[in-house]
Fold this protein.
Amino acid sequence: MERSTSKKQIKKIIQIVLPFILGIAVMAWTYKGFDFHKVARVLHGEVNYWWIFLSLVFGVFGHLFRGWRWNLALAPLGEYPKMSNSVYAIFVSYAANLVIPRVGEVSRCGLLAKYEGVSFTKSLGTVVAERFIDSLLVVLITLVTLFLQSGVFVGFFKVTGTDMNSFLGLFSSSNFYITIVCLISLVILLIMLVRNISVFAKVRGILGDIWQGCLSIRKVKNPVLYILYTLGIWICYFLQFYLTFYSFHFSAGLDFMAGLVLFVVGSIAVVVPTPNGAGPWHFAVITMMMMYGVSKDDAGIFALLVHGIQTFLLILLGIYGLVALPLINKKLTN
C-alpha cells in the first residue's frame, strides 16, 4: 500500500515538474543573450495600455462564452447548473492548467459536481465533445490561413528546421530540436491522458456516461446559439491577441492576416504541455514575427509581455472563481 501511494505521489510530482522544466528550458533557449532591460524600458513608456485593457476584456468574454456554451451542452443530460457556477468553474480550470497542464478539464467538472451535483462523468463527456469541436475549428482556421499565407509558413518551416526540401540539414538546426522536443512532449501528454482515462473507466465503469456526455451535443436545444457561442469564443481569443499589436510601435503596423498567422501558430504551440504554452508559444510567435520584419529583440519583448499579461489574467480569474464559488453557493443554501 505504501509503495503504491509513493508511486502515485512521484507520478503527481512528475506531472507538475516536467511541464515547468520543459517550459523553462525552451524559454531559456529562446531568450538566450536577450537584454531584459529593454522590457523594463518598453513597460515604462512605450506601451499603450488602453489596447492591453481592451484585449483583456475580450479575453474575459471568451471565457464567459465558454461557460454559457457548456450549459447548453449539459441541458440534454438533464443537468441545469447555474450559469455563474459554470462560468466560475471555467475561470478556475484555466488557472489550474497553469499548474498542471490539461488538469483544468477535470477540475471544472469536479467543481460542478461539488456545487451543483452534476454528474462528473457526463459533464466530462461534454468537455471532450467541445474540445473536439474546438479542435476542428482550429484546424479549419489553420488550413484557411495556410492557404492565404503559404509563403510565410514556408519561411517559418525553413527557420524552424522543418523544411522538407533540406531534410539532411535538419540535424544541424537547434530550432529543429526544440520543435521535436515539443512534439515528443505532446505525444507523452496524450499517452498519459489516454492511460488515465482508460484506468479510471475500468475502475469506475464510467465510459458509458462519458460517451453519453459526448453525444449530448447532438441534442442541444438551440444548436444555432451553440455555434454562435463557439464562434464567439474564438473571435474573442483572436481579438485578445490581435489587439495587443496596437500596444507597441514595432507591431502596430502588422495587418489582420499577420495577426491571424501568429494566432494560429500560437494556438498550436499552446497545445505543448507547459504552463499556458510558455516557451513553445514564445518560440513560435517570435519566429513568425521575424518573418514579418519585426526584429528578434522586439518580437521577444512582445511575446514576453503579451504572454505574461494573458497569464496574469488567467490567475486573477482563477482566484476570483475560487473565492466566488463557495460564497455564492453559501448564500443560496442559507
Q: What stands out?
A: The chain has 13 helices and no strands. The longest helix spans residues 296-333. The CA atoms of residues 95 and 314 lie 5 Å apart.
